[in-house]
Amino acid sequence: MKIRYFVTAALIATSASYACSQTLVENPITKAMMGVYAQELEENPEYYEIYFRRANEYYNLNQYLRALSDIDNALKYTPETETDLLFQEYTLRANIYMMNDRKEDALLDLEKACQLDPTSYSTLFLKANTEYELGKYTDAKTDYSKLLRYDQRMVEPLIGLARIAVKENNLGLANEYIDRAVSFASADSDVYLRRADVRKLMGNNTGAVDDLIIAISIDKDNNRALSELVAMSNTDYNAVITGLTSAIQQAPSVGMFVYLRAVISMSHYRYTAAIADFHQIIDENLYNYAGIYGSLAECYYGIGKYQEALTEINQALSMTADNGEYYITRAQIRRAMGDYDKALESAATAVDKLPGSVKALVVKGLCETSVEKYEEASELFGEAIMDAPDNAYNYLLRANVMTQHLNQASAARNLYRRVVDLDYDDLNVKSFKGFALFLQGKDADAIAWMENILANVKDVDGAINYYGACFFSQMGNVERAFSCMENALENGYADYTNWTKTDDCVVSVAKIRQDKRFTDLLSRYDYLFKD
User: Fold this and answer.
1) In 163-176, which positions are buried (b, 16+ CB within 10 angstroms) versus exposed (e)?
2) Among 154, 151, 150, which Cα is nearest to 188's?
């Protein structure tokens, strides 16, 4: 099962694609071919066919500025009688413009291309899509309708017309178009993805979830459907869980839906729900592999049941040699249990098995802190910062060790400044910018940062308010901290370990734990932590 890791895989694939393009530029065959092009252009600077060929090569290598320069020259020198070539050149330049987010320029070239070849379906479709993206809905509607005249059963123009109908607030017509599209390609998972897109535009999240689930049913390897379902859980968790629950009721033996519901529940701190699903998978023999037990361990760790977590992680470790991640989890569990030496032992093994893992470095650093090896911990956090310079939390971990244990307050202040300077969205709570501002004595700016996030970010799972509770408890605003804590619990934030143990840096509610209200709130919401 790879559902938990498809987002990471997509990012790796993107990086690999870029690396591949760079490698191809340096490929001896590619370099030789480019050399030939350069020589021919040196001999004839108006050789338009060579400019066009080289522009194509640069475009395929993601070298868009070079491609644009060559295609401009190709168009400059191509005779008007070469209509077929001009059509290709304008189409290529339009695509280059699109890659550089120059949609208006792209549209002008697509219009010229369509004049040169009015029968090109793909060019007219790209033109219609560009018009839609630019808000030229009347023109887009005209072009999508032209495409339908070629073939009434074409799906893409129907989806385009449906999107326009939504923009024009004609939801009945939008539904008619998308249902027609599905009826023409009901065995194709992609058509349900497209209907899901339209339904999301309409605000019909329930219908969109249903379509994504159908797409997964048709094609279990459809990563886009999986990705969009997970993304939707970040904005409408209840719709996603309700849709998956309905699918499970209709097909109880389909383990993928149970697993997907478990993973989504787990990612939103609904650990007890995830535990129930993981146990169902095991009890009904739907799947049986190490990752199930590793996930169970993480869930039990989340709700503070460390002995159960240890049992599950040991089971995961016994089932596979590829178990570096499980040593990280065992280190976290052992540390929470106060068994610091064994925690450090597991963390060291994780670092050995996963030499490129920032998470392993951080967990080992935390374990070194627990055994009072502060210099070693600081070095590990520093290494983690070098490997992942955009991870704000690691700066705070190192700064905390420097301030609390190494008498290096000046160096810590430099780290706070670096956190503030990181390139994060203003509404991303995990920039921890407000925490760093507070540690620099800029209280007003810090409060404004936190209040802006609380006011403008939908708190689907209580995590935003948890960070709010951490922030205000550190600020000494106890009333505001408890208000955020109650909101977090009300929204389902069930990370008992974070509530009761985490105190590795300023991102913690440690300062309000001795208040009776803290215990009372956890007692009132104790159902969140009972499996």
Assistant:
1) bbbbeeeebeebbe
2) 154
Query: What would the pLDDT profile of 411-452 be if each residue is shown by its tens digit?
Result: 999 999 999 999 999 999 999 999 999 999 999 999 999 999
How far apart are alpha carbons 291 and 312 in whole angstroms? 10
Spatial separation of the C-alpha atoms in residues 288 and 447, rounded to whole Å = 48
Neighbours of 99 (CB within 10 A): 14
Only one residue has tokens 């935003």, namely 464
Tell me the HSE value of 235 on the side-chain side, using a 13 A CA sphere.
Answer: 12
Name the burial class of residue 419, with classes exposed (0-12), middle (13-18) and buried (19+) by CB atoms within 10 angstroms of its CB.
buried
**In CATH, 268-373 is 1.25.40.10:** yes
Residue with the two structure tokens 């370990």: 497
Mean pLDDT for all residues in the chain: 93
**Tokens representing 139?**
């023109």
- pLDDT number for residue 26: 64
Mean pLDDT across 296-305: 98
Could you tell me the CA-to-CA distances from 106 to 89, 91, 109, 299, 482 in Å, in that order?
12, 8, 5, 50, 54
Euclidean distance between CA atoms 474 and 508, whole angstroms: 8
Hey, is 464 helix, strand or coil?
Answer: helix
pLDDT at 265 over 60: yes
Contact 64, 58 (CB under 8 A): yes
Task: Return the closest-CA partner of residue 437 out of 458, 453, 415.
Answer: 415
CA 420 to CA 433: how far, in whole Å? 5
**What dotted CATH number matches 1-117?**
1.25.40.10
At 439, list the tokens. Answer: 């540690």
Q: 3-state class of 461 per DSSP?
A: coil
- Predicted local distance difference test score (pLDDT) of residue 6: 38
Structure tokens at 227: 């990705």
Instruction: Dig out the tokens for 222 from the structure.
Output: 């459809």
Q: In a 10 Å sphere around its CB, with 0-12 CB exposed, 13-18 middle and 19+ buried, how is residue 520 labelled?
A: exposed
CA distance 275 to 432: 30
d(CA 51, CA 130): 26
Residue 493, classed as helix, strand or coil, is coil
Residue 372's region, left for phi above 0, alpha for psi from -120 to 50, else beta, is: left
Distance CA 217, CA 237 (A): 20
Q: HSE (CB half, 13 Å, CA atoms) of 452?
A: 13
Q: State the Cα angle at 510 between 410 and 489, rounded to 5°.
A: 130
Long-range contact list for 242-251, CB < 8 A, 24+ apart? 242/206, 242/209, 243/206, 243/209, 243/210, 243/212, 243/213, 244/209, 244/213, 246/210, 247/213, 247/217, 251/217
What is the residue extent of each domain of the chain?
A: 1-117, 268-373, 389-452, 458-531
Tell whether pTM > 0.85: no
Q: Do 1-117 and 268-373 show the same overall fold?
A: yes
pLDDT digits 0-9 by tens, 354-364:
998 999 999 99
